Amino acid sequence: MSDHISGPRALADPIADITDVYAFPSPESPGRLVLVLNTLPMAKPSDLFSAGLMYRFRLRSLTPPTREGSGWQFVPGDEELVLDCVFGAPEHVSDQIAGPGAGQPDHEQQGTCLIPNGEQASFRVNAEEGGAGRGMRVFAGVRWDPFIMDARAALATIATRKLAFTDSGSIFLDGKNVLSIVVEIDTGFLPGGTLVGVVAETLTRGEFNVRIERVGRPEVKNMMLAPKDFDLVNRDLEIRDLYNMDDAFHLGDSYAGAYRARLDANLAFWDGLDGTMDWPIDGDGSHPLTDLILADYLVVDVTKPYVERGSFLEIELAARRGESHVTCGGRTLNDDVMDTIFTQLVNAGRGPTIRDGVDSATRPGTVSFPYLAAPNPNPPEPPEHH
């Protein structure tokens, strides 16, 4: 599941667990970029955000590779836009206001999103209209989880070493909710350049900020870093919490070798599932996709218009071929990105599409703010962990 429950800390503190990140040009407001951070897997309709966390978007300009076959290196610039969203402690609402027996929450919460130049937007959690400031608007609240994937079949593929997808798949706990933060911001606030890298983080709030989670592309941690059996170098190492501590734009040297060993092994496993090796391994055992995965941020062209499907990884793959990209890239709510990911992992896009049997959410995203579908008032109960 995209980044749901992606490591021991996420399991221990799900309020800080980022489940998905999206970035795409606004379909209703040209000249604006939409950023989405989903957190708290399997949220209840009454759940609120943590007053002890900062929910952060980081954006940097990117310089694309200079020639065909020169790798995946979209080099991040030094200038960075940091957008932080913080929340107050929940406030009790009187029974008269809450409406006893009406199913209304008995607590409400205020939030603020701000950027370093002082611009900010304040809002009430779960208010459909959100809040607005100069050049941006923000929504935060419970929404239907839009992630599209047959997670059980993906995990069965890893366990059985055989593709376990079927023509008709199912979304794990379909109808579950998440806590969503949606920020729509004028592109004039962004670092200069056409291409922008986007990553989202949760951090402790206060004088000393500790990163709990970071997410760029989907399924990096759960599908590509979590499996241990194929990694002969670090077979006993749970690597995902270490990965979260590293800076997405400037990966440190301390654990880089461990990440590479894990990815080289796991990517080779995925590539071999169809009986052929479509990604030629380098002489030192490096997998060609490893550098792409470690540059773990969404790549968005803010000058291109919104497209519903097919933009995910299009910029990166076009650069690999030495061609110009044609879409906005990034990640939109209704793009079936897992089919794109599985197809690249298994056959490098040279064979048939590897479908997981799920093509859309039961309640897809919309083209109007706040873009995510309304929450499920009666979400399924999560399974118990023993």
Q: Could you explain how this protein is built, in words?
A:
It is built from nine helices and 14 strands. It has 386 residues and is α+β, with helices and mostly antiparallel strands. The protein has one domain. The two termini are 19 Å apart. Helix content is 18%, strand content 26%. About 2% of the residues have low confidence. Strand 1 and strand 2 form a beta hairpin. Strands 3, 4, 7, 8, 12, 13 and 14 form a seven-stranded antiparallel beta sheet that branches. A five-stranded antiparallel beta sheet has the order 1-2-11-10-9, with no helix packed on it. The chain has a two-stranded antiparallel ribbon with strand order 5-6. The radius of gyration is 20 Å and the shape is globular.
